[in-house]
């Protein structure tokens, strides 16, 4: 049964990847109706997160944001399945990354490692084009999926342009091993809920007490890297633009947690400006601070 399910999934991915945009996003519109109205996918979590993050907004405004979010989530869902079998030529047409090449090239000439930090904003999977920007060795830090088949397919997708995916558990060891042998560009998504076993920084994020992952700051300082805060701007359906927002070069001048605080304010600003593009369905605030 699982084998049939896997074959059907790959067939779906191949079929979606060959559809023209207007048909692909018509399918996404059908998915929106299904996940919002029929199965109400994580609706309680989404509305709770929105209300807690924007207490000043009316119920009508919260619902408007939620509807826009579910439309966007449907786009992400369809795009990501299609990406698994999508031809590289088409992927490159969907992401405008050209304006960043000079920045990355200059850092490579300066013999600098890079820690590129983003968030679950727009469709982060399109960062798979990063190896097109740079001669750096690109390491993409990820959390493995529970299902081995889907994990394998998404790994293949993320390697499409030459990135080397590395698990969160193996990332620090791998980076320290490789930093002397090659110049690294390390891609991190740091707005997820951090694991309980890690040391964290707590701050107010979107009106809520939040544990923040310290990986980007720790890694960048350890290997003397340049940090770049980045995100994808959704120009229209099927078209994204990669934006480099801030660049931090000399990390010795920043106090402990200062870079992490700068990152979370960067993400917060993005979300406040266009909240529909962030991943509200994630139970980001499930973990509470333990006070003695």
Find the count of extended strands (DSSP E, 2+ residues).
Answer: 9
Distance between the termini: 51 Å
The tally of domains stands at 2
H-E string:
HHHHHEHEEHEHEEEHEEH
Mean pLDDT: 94
Spatial strand sequence of the major β-sheet: 1-9-8-2-5-3-4
Percent of sequence in beta strands: 15-25%
Level of helix content? 40-55%
- Helices and strands: which structural class? alpha/beta
* Weakly predicted, low-confidence segments: none
User: What would the principal axes of the Cα set say about the shape?
Assistant: globular
Largest sheet: 7 strands, mixed
Radius of gyration, in Å, reads: 19 Å
Note the total helix count. Answer: 10
Description of the molecule:
- A seven-stranded mixed β-sheet has the order 1-9-8-2-5-3-4. Strands 6-7 form a two-stranded antiparallel ribbon.
- The protein has helices at 2-18, 21-38, 43-53, 59-85, 88-94, 101-109, 148-158, 168-178, 215-222, 258-273, and strands spanning 95-96, 114-118, 137-142, 164-167, 184-189, 200-205, 208-213, 226-236, 239-248.
- By secondary structure, the protein is of the alpha/beta class.
- Helix 1 (2-18) crosses helix 4 (59-85) and helix 2 packs across helix 4.
- It folds into two domains: 2-85, no CATH class; 88-277, no CATH class.
- It starts with a helix and ends in a 19-residue tail after the last helix.
Question: What characteristics describe this protein?
Answer:
alpha/beta, 292 residues, single chain, two-stranded antiparallel sheet, seven-stranded mixed beta sheet, globular
